[in-house]
Amino acid sequence: MQTGLRIEATDDSYQANKVTLDTNGDWFKTEPIGGSGGYINVLPSIQLQYRLQQNTNLRGTFGIGISRPNFSDIVPSQQIDPNAAPPLVVLGNPALKPTKANNYDILLEHYFRPFGILQAGFFYKTLSDPIYPTTSLSVQFPAFTSNNRLTGPTATSPASRQLGTASVVSAWSPQRVRGVRKLQLQRVASYLPKRF
User: Fold this and answer.
1) Residue 42 — very low, low, confident or very high, per pLDDT cuts 50/70/90?
2) Cα 120 from Cα 100, distance rounded (Å)
3) What is the C-alpha to C-alpha distance for residues 109 and 57, in angstroms, rounded to an integer?
4) Sign (positive/negative) of CA torsion 171, 172, 175, 179?
5) 2-187 sits in which CATH class?
6) Rounded distance, CA 190 to CA 116, Å?
7) 31: exposed, middle or buried (C-beta count within 10 Å: 0-12, 13-18, 19+)?
8) Around 110, how many Cα atoms within 13 Å sit in the side-chain half-sphere?
9) What is the dihedral of CA 65, 67, 68, 69, to 10 degrees?
10) Is the previous residue joined to 86 through a cis bond, with omega within 30 degrees of 0?
11) Predicted confidence (pLDDT) per residue in 5-18, tens digit
């Protein structure tokens, strides 16, 4: 039996500028914005091995892991592409959490003499806060004129806004994944002629 414990600490911070244009599409003001976040994850693991026969082992493992969101996905940015059809806005999501995975593995191994191995395995994972890109249609955001000048994010009337597509990375409900981990056969080609 083998056990392990990994502790990971994550800290992030960002600084950016929020640019506001007037109703004519000209610069109005620039405001510095920033934010930060952090978390600590305790990630244990354990591996058990049982000898079924002299050359056959059954191995089982359990471990917890995380997958962090891309840094560009957690910054509260807004990128607007007026040339897309329909217009596209890509949003950051500061509320994103790392995806946490509980990993279960079973592996059967048989060793051949003098050399060789046959392996077959199965895995099962449970994921919490899995991260997926999400697209929303018919979203209202500041409109553009024919020369691609913003008509004004300071304006709130419906006439100054248009429908488009919003893309944002979000966390979904817990998921489960399972499948065959490994099916492998290795044998020494002893029938090949020897070197001169």
Assistant:
1) very high
2) 26
3) 5
4) negative
5) mainly beta
6) 11
7) exposed
8) 8
9) -160
10) yes
11) 999 999 888 887 77
